[in-house]
Amino acid sequence: MSAGTPRSLASSGQKSIQDICHPLSAEESALSRIPDVLNPGSAGERDLILPNGTPVDTSSPASSSSLLNRLQLDDDLDGETRDEQKYNITTEFDLPEYSVRRRYQDFDWLRNKLEESQPTHLIPTTRTEFDLPEYSVRRRYQDFDWLRNKLEESQPTHLIPPLPEKFVMKGVVDRFSEEFVETRRKALDKFLKRVADHPVLSFNEHFNAFLSAKDLNKRQGLALLTKMGESVKYVTGGYKVRARPVEFAAMGDYLDLFTQKLGTIDRIAQRIIKEQSEFLMELREYGPVYSSWSSFEEDLHDPLEGVSGCVSNCSSALEELTEDMSEDFLPVLREYVLYIESMKNVLKKRDQVQAEYETKLEAVVFREDKKTPVPSDVEKCQDRVECFNADLKADWDRWENNKRQDFRQLLTGMSNKNILYYEKCLAAWESLIPLLQDKQEAKGETN
Amino acid sequence: MADSGSEDIAVIGNTDLTPLESENNLKNTMVEKGTSLLKKMEISVAEAEKRTGKNAVNMQETYTVYLIETRPVDAASEGTNPVLDSLWKRYSEFELLRNYLLVTYPFAVVPPLPEKRAEFVWHKLSADNMDPDFVERRRVGLENFLLRVASHPVLSSDKIFYLFLTEENGWKETVFETGFQAKADSRLKALNATFRVKNPDKRFAEMKHYGDELQSVISQLLRVRARAADRLYGVYKVHGNYGRVFSEWSAIEKEMGDGLQSAGHHMDAYAASVDDILEEEEHYADQLKEYLFYADALRTVCRKHELTQYELEMAVQDLTSKKQQREELATGTIRTFSLKGMTSKLFGQETPEQREAKLKMLETQIEEGEEQVKERNAECDEFVKSAWVDIERFKEQKDHDLRESLISYAIMQISMCKKGIQVWNNAKECFNKM
Which of A21, B319, B344, B382 would staple B369 via disulfide (CB 3.0–4.6 Å)? Predict the structure, then answer.
């Protein structure tokens, strides 16, 4: 089967699904360029395109409930023959849904294509409940960085999730160590999930390219990008920033305070890890002393060895605790600090847009005597402001919700780790007691 | 679990035993072993008080006195008001008592006193002798000392010890009147014997070596434990900062606020819990310290054996040389070098009368020497016998006590873990409500 160059999706933002080229759609001459839409038959799902062909606008921001991306595999209901068996690929979002029909060999093609790429980070895409093979592409950190920049450029009104820190001090952190790579992987995974969660960002063409393209064509702008609408760049700077409206000012204040608190928590957590590590060091010296004592005792030999073993078990448990905290807890905190930074930038951009509008408006009002209708560019500015504000508010609500969940998860996770540590130690010491007492009874009996 | 019928008190099954209770178990063990003294009276060091007074060089000094209370056992069991004898004694008087016992019963492994100055302290604990925690732990140690002596099969029947418990004034003079200080071996003498003894009993040599090793390992253990305690303190206390920052954070949150705030309280509780934990561990450290000092007492007995053995060897050597001299004088052969021998060779033999005189003197000396050897032999034998009995007794006591200590240590750790689990579960509940 010949492979063509998969084409990236255009943003679904303001286009009807019928205009979107699926990367695979060029492959099968039997398929029309417009993907067929088929109702998979499950009740309650909403089709993007109504059965009569009317497109549905998908540009409005989704509700704040979380979104899931699933690939479902259903047997084709039309009862075609085995060879012609087509599978429906349904991508479900909370609102919109679209599906295309593909044959098994299309999946095969896709899989081969993707396996051919050479990158570093594995991006497993979602698995189906049936036998669809998982496909994955590999990406490097700089690809993620590219994606994020592209997202910021193309969706400047939205809050883009942060990436883990780009620059790591050489000599301080081993960039190829397992722990570092694993920590980074988790953060990158989270980044992708957050983008996939987002009702607008998840449709972004760059995101889709990122997930599926063999080679990210980073240098050239993607052909479809030149369409206006999504690629409008907002002018930054050059306008006098006025006072923020109350709600956005409140956001800004909150972000400032929140960053502070996060910083404090980070420091506390680090300090705890440090103290625990030093405690661990002492424990590692403490346990063996009991061992060496046992070497010149007779009756007490086993009890002393037992204590030594116990201390050693507790040491291992403590080591795991500190490692877990380093790997799972601290990075999330830091990520949020970065997230907040980028959010503050978005707020600033919003200010700029508003400033631009207000400045232009003032200039027009000034010339009011000329009785000219409000120029279109001022109107456009007004639109931009309103769009921005709306997007931002919706994103803010979503962010607040996610933040609440994230921190609930983070802190209960921290509690769980500590509970696990104490449970391990408890088990060790409890198992020692009968060993210590056993001899006594035996001794008593022989008396 | 029920008593297995042996004399051993077992701390079994009840993992909620507090250190106070486990100390009581130790005391009960001693009482049950039942010396005649302990069958008659209960002994306790009930209180400690600060006093000031003029010392020997007429300077003001502050010192602590300890209240020793004794009461007859029978009266207590009858339910009538027990007659309470109580008197105050200083630490130095305890020291005097112990020194007396050391000299008077050199074959006994004499129980040690609690340390004079606080050692192996971790940073939060004060090394000040006047610190109330130190005084309290010392009080417990002194009581322990008295109980140990009172439960010793030999020491418990000592008159001076009895007077110590019952006479406040005049006891010191009584002790000095025994003249025990004159009987004390000088350090130098003991050291000399250690180096020169040829044939010490192997068992004692091994015991001495064991004492050395025990002392070394317990010192090390105490040192590392103190450092670990320091670190553990830090870990817990830093968590207290979470309490504060969660409180501040909750102020800027809407729905998350309550959960954060209450979780913060639990973090505070967690941080505070370490004080009790470490105080309990001090009891364990004290139990180890007692055996650290016991190791020294053990070595003292072994050194005494070396001394008596050495003196026996000296006496034997002396006797042998005298016998040899007699032989030479009698047979006229000079095998041993002596100045007299040389001069008589040079200047002529001595007269038969002189020889007679010398022989007679030697005979007397040999007789005396033989007596001495007999005496010292007997001394040595007796010492070895009674010392070994006490050493065996000590070994059993040590094994039992240290095992109990390890059990109570494990129980402490279990308690600490359970507390930790509870606090973090509480915090987790709060976080879940965020």
Answer: B319
